[in-house]
What does this fold into?
Amino acid sequence: GPLPFACRGEVVRGFGRGSRQLGVPTANFSDQVVESFPSDIPTGVYYGWASVGNGDVHKMVLSIGWNPFYKNIKKSVETHIIHNFKEDFYGEILSVVVIGYIRSEKNFNSLEALISAIKEDIEEAKRQLDLPEHLKLKDDFFHLLEG
Ligand code: ADP
Ligand code: MG
It folds into this structure.
């Protein structure tokens, strides 16, 4: 399959769909970067490693979804980095290595259900990324990005 998949690109503004208000801000890639993703990669939630600019490598969850703004004919790719940043980083270069799949895209009946699913995704990502074979990919992060 296409994993692990490494990619870097500028962080652009999303549509402010409230992810920050839910406590899970998601850094959005531009359409151009989204189009560089493998076209056959399933939509859903993934885990992996990420870094902003020349910063440290952190755990992340990344969602690939159908973008309602484009009537669901284009995808969006959004990364929540499991780290407390002091400031926003719009315009900076986000580097990601996508390692594994957590679940498919879902619709939720309530905000509470959505929030608890995201929290479970984050816990699952943390557990997975502590496995030796996944920690190894953190050490290989910059090599994977260089291809
Ligand atoms: P938008 O709709 O513009 O993407 P969000 O509410 O999803 O707005 O917030 C995303 C922005 O929050 C990112 O572009 C980034 O600048 C900032 N941010 C701060 N902390 C994080 C984090 N831990 N993970 C992702 N983005 C973060
Ligand atoms: Mg976002």
